[in-house]
Write a structure and sequence with these properties.
α10 runs parallel beside α14 (about 430-465), α11 runs antiparallel to α14 and α20 runs antiparallel to α21. The protein is α+β, with helices and mostly antiparallel strands and about 850 residues long. It has 22 helices and 33 strands. A hairpin with a 5-residue loop joins β9 (about 210-225) and β10 (about 230-240).
Length: about 850
């Protein structure tokens, strides 16, 4: 009988010798029983003969017996699967063949052959049945031998190219379909031959001979064929056309990329470039987005249909990486140079200009708002094609699709898509996809256009309200960082400033106005200007904030819902640092206290009394006084640097700030950026300003002071003492002017003031002369008549010095005057 495997093969082939025969009469009653039948079902002949066939089957198939016998009588036979029931009650699947066994003139008889199916997959079919099945299948089917040469294929495979079945015999895939990536497919076949693992769902995308200009997609499956001994004899593979599914998937992927990529900002040119980047190379070989200049400036487009129509190429992409994005082509003029620093650049200044003829398809689409496409265009006949990116070579036909950029009823420009080479020409489906793609970008372009004017106005405010460059001075080394939360304007209500004061001192200011955008920026500008004006009065920090609070209240009362109301609730911290003795005075109005990084790296937070926010009323402001070692760093910041105002999180926020400030950095600018990057996300919920100032000390040899008696005779000695010190400093050329200033200021102190008198000279970037007295009355600059005998002292001082002023202290006042040191080496 052979091995077990051979028995299994025989059973699957329904070998008659392996079947169990039995006889039935015309009514379906068993009349003859064999040993094979007894072995199969377990019934002895004494129990089986005389039973109906239905009694040998399970309940489900017993009801089919009458129908099966009728079909057998009518058609001469029947074959099919039945579920028999063994004597022990166990069901057993069998394949049954019933044929008529009538003898001439005898009774009706039926011969039944039963074969246990076991693990057989189903019917055993003849070769003719199998050949008809695979030949008539709509799926492409082929068999190759171990050399990967065709030995058989069906007619359906010819639809995918490569010729009819008889033309393929003995050839390989690359022979019958040149240009196809046959190596990849044959690599799959070799792998299947080697390991016997079936490959299902292998996708191949490319061009075939039957459709050289159309990208097609096919799904292939490969199965190894073995002989009866398990040796590979070839590969059986199937091919299914999934081009429609592939293209639908590409469209969905393209629209998904467009949704994620287009409109990431409110910049018109960037949005146009994003549209071009998304469409190349998947949808087109080249894309150009042309917009009129008014659109780039934020206005409504108004194209002139007469003559040439200039459009600005806001976005462009070419699949050929060898060509630059803005390669010079006929009809395109590129600006010769960029704008000079400090001059506002128009949005379209950096985009090349394209001059389209009035009767060209791009202009017609711009005027009518309707799309247009051409399947095969000749560049020699269509001169306007030269204005498109990736212009075709002479004699090369191209396909062009032009879609207007329309949003909210306005046509803002046109988008030109170009395909060349073996790419399939644009069709109606491509037009629908392109319109969907461009419409998404059009809304973003229109949003950007509508806000361009507001953004430009905000940028003007930004240039004028925030410091372009912090003043140079010797008191502190300073660095600042500002990160806005408003993506539209790039500006909010936070600000920082450094204001030089008299006697080499500086004022450090950080503040914030509630809100974002132009209103907040305008209010911030008014408050910042007020701070600078009050700083010029040389008032203590708490008095500066008190005057500022009164000003915001008046603004709110006079202007209602305008800038005054916007400034209500503003916060500010005002710090004055003196590099002569390292003393630092500060006060805060609804604002976080500064942090101090000591020279050894330790971080401390100033215990600063908190006043109420500006314009809201409250108790008087208080100040804090401290002395900082040289090399200490003050960190003034707005509350956006830390948490969003949660009181319980204050300690946690300070711990985060402490860790950020403790990180070592190569310089103060880098340290400032490091703190911002560590604590602030790229798109913060609130504006953030950080001002860091590393303190310096003036060396003792750059400061000189003297106690003077209230005696007019001391004036001459003061002049001589000051002149000697200038000689030591190498400033003899300032002696005459300085003696005049000392003489006038000391004389006024002796004549009009009381208490001790002190003279101090400070050599910094300017020469400062200070005279302290115990009086509380400020001197006034007078303009005496020619007949007056006095009153010219301060007038002379104002004429010979760069600036002068008065500063009040708790125990008196200081009158000071500054002379410029023009020589940078001094």
């Amino acid at each position: 009988m052979g091995t077990h495997d051979e028995d299994g093969v025989a059973r699957r082939r329904f070998d008659v010798a392996d079947a169990a025969p039995l006889l039935l009469d015309g009514r379906g009653v068993v009349t003859s029983w064999t040993r094979d039948a007894e072995r199969l079902l377990g019934y002895p002949a004494s129990e089986a003969v005389g039973r109906d066939l239905a009694g040998l089957l399970t309940h489900g198939d017993a009801g089919r017996v009458a129908e099966i016998l009728e079909r057998c009588r009518r058609e001469g036979g029947w074959s099919g699967l039945l579920s028999a029931r063994r004597r022990d009650g166990r069901p057993v699947p069998v394949m049954a063949r019933i044929t008529c066994a009538d003898e001439p003139g005898g009774a009706d008889r039926r011969l039944v052959l039963l074969s246990e199916t076991g693990d057989a997959p189903g019917w055993t079919m003849s070769r003719s049945v199998l050949e008809r099945m695979v030949s008539d299948s709509p799926i492409g089917i082929a068999i190759v031998d171990t050399d990967l040469r065709f030995v058989w294929s069906n007619d359906a495979l010819a639809r995918f190219g490569g010729g009819r079945p008889e033309e393929r015999l003995g050839l390989r895939l690359g022979d019958v379909q040149p240009g196809l990536d046959a190596e990849a497919a044959e690599a799959q076949m070799r792998r299947v031959l080697a390991d016997g693992v079936t490959v299902v769902g292998y996708e191949h995308v490319g061009h075939v001979r039957a459709a050289p200009h159309r990208e097609t997609a096919h799904m292939l499956s490969f199965t190894r064929l073995d002989d009866d001994h398990g040796n590979p004899v070839g590969v059986y593979y199937t091919v299914v056309d999934i081009t429609d599914r592939h293209r639908a998937r590409q469209r969905l992927a393209l629209l998904d990329r467009a949704g994620r990529s287009i409109g990431s900002s409110l910049d018109i040119a960037r949005t146009a470039q994003e549209l071009a980047d998304v469409a190349v190379p998947g949808f087109a070989d080249a894309v150009a987005v042309d917009l009129p200049a008014p659109v780039l400036s934020g206005a409504e487009p108004a194209p002139d249909p007469s003559g040439t129509v200039p459009l600005h190429r806001a976005g462009q992409r070419i699949a050929d990486s060898a060509k630059p994005p803005h390669a010079a082509t006929p009809g395109i003029a590129t600006p010769p140079h960029a704008s000079a620093p400090g001059i506002a650049t128009p949005p379209h200044a950096s985009t090349p200009t394209v001059a389209h003829q009035a009767d060209s398809p791009p202009v017609r689409c711009l005027l009518t708002g309707s799309p247009w496409y051409g399947e095969r265009l000749d560049p020699s006949a269509e001169k306007w094609l030269r204005n498109l990116p990736g212009a075709p070579a002479p004699g090369e036909s191209v396909s062009v699709l032009i879609v207007p950029v329309r949003a909210r009823g306005a046509t803002l420009g046109v988008t030109c898509f170009l395909r060349r080479g073996l790419r399939e020409p644009f069709d109606a489906d491509d037009l629908a996809l392109a319109e969907d793609l461009v419409s998404r970008a059009a809304v973003c372009v229109d949003n950007a256009r509508r806000y361009t004017r507001e953004r430009d106005a905000a940028l003007v405010l930004q240039r004028n309200l925030l410091p372009h460059r912090l003043p140079e001075q010797d008191a502190v080394e300073v660095a600042a960082c500002y990160r806005p939360a408003d993506e539209l304007t790039g500006l909010g209500g936070d600000w920082y400033d450094l204001i030089p004061l008299s006697a080499a001192r500086v004022a450090l200011v950080v503040g914030e106005v509630p809100g974002h955008g132009i209103d907040a920026a305008a209010a911030m500008g008014r408050v910042r200007t007020a701070v600078r004006t009050l700083a010029a009065l040389d008032l203590p920090p708490e008095e500066v904030l008190a005057h500022l609070d009164d000003l915001v209240v008046r603004m709110a009362r006079e202007e209602g819902l305008d800038a005054g109301t916007q400034a209500q609730g503003a916060g500010c911290v005002y710090v004055v640092y003196d590099p002569v003795d390292g003393r630092c005075a500060m006060a805060a109005a609804g604002h976080p206290a500064p942090a101090v990084v000591l020279p050894d790296g330790e971080v401390r937070f100033v215990d600063l009394p908190q006043g109420s926010a500006l314009g809201l009323g409250g108790p008087p402001f208080e100040s804090a006084q401290l002395t900082l070692p040289e090399g200490s760093t003050l960190a003034l910041h707005t509350d956006g640097l830390l948490a969003q105002g949660a009181e319980w999180a204050l300690d946690t926020d300070r711990a985060r700030l402490r860790r950020a400030l403790e990180r070592p950095a190569a310089g103060l600018d880098l340290a400032c950026r490091t703190v911002i990057d560590a604590l602030v996300p790229a798109r913060p919920y609130d504006d953030v300003a950080l001002l860091m100032a590393r303190t310096r000390r003036l060396s003792p040899d750059r400061v000189a002071d003297w106690e003077l008696p209230a005696d007019p005779a001391a004036v001459a000695e003061a002049r001589r003492t000051a002149s000697r010190r200038l000689a030591e400093w190498g400033l003899p050329e300032l002696s005459f002017t300085t003696e005049l200033v000392v003489s006038e200021l000391v004389t006024n102190a002796i004549r009009y003031a009381t208490g001790p008198i002190r003279l101090r000279l400070i050599r910094e970037r300017s020469l400062v002369c200070e005279v302290f007295d115990g009086g509380a009355t400020a001197p006034h600059l007078r303009h005496p008549r020619t007949t007056d005998e006095g009153g010219r002292g301060l007038l002379l001082v104002s004429q010979v010095t760069e600036r002068w002023g008065t500063r009040f202290l708790g125990e008196g006042k200081i009158i000071w005057a500054e002379q410029s040191l023009s020589d940078p080496g001094v």
